Amino acid sequence: MTDKLDFVTGDYVVYPAHGVGRIVAIEKHAIADMEVVLYAITFEKERMTLKVPVMKAKNAGLRRLSSKDRIKDAMETLQGPSKIKRIMWSRRAQEYEAKINSGDPVSIAEVVRDLHRGTDQSDQSYSERQIYHAALERLARELAAVEKIDERKATERLEAVLAKAA
């Protein structure tokens, strides 16, 4: 193997478009007379395995779990005031999806914060709920992996922070 490995089997990693996964193998495959080294990453929630070439991993945005400080920044973001732009929903929805797919916990926390509705606030549309739950789930998964707790506990912690901030 000539490629330098940034991760080893068993590492938890974040792939921006799918969230937290675990490297289950590092495989060699012959493709068109070339040998390619791949990270095999499983995403249990989606029941999916993704194979990412080692040499393309950095460009694909594959990264280690966030530091505790970055998660703390995300938690602080949840407590801030929501910033809803006065633009059409379709445009805002695209921006929210881009933030979720960036894989950055602070950007994802912004989406959760902006779309969170307290019990006293108006109802969300179906698409707002979908995006909110996708962002909450993505943030909870990374929080759970960093804090070594289960995803349900992580979600409860996030919701408690949101309720306190409301």
Automatic annotation (TrEMBL):
GO terms for biological process: rRNA transcription. Residues 6-116 form the CarD-like/TRCF RNAP-interacting domain. SUPFAM superfamilies: CarD-like (SSF141259). Transmembrane segments: none annotated. It comes from the Bacteria. This is CarD family transcriptional regulator.
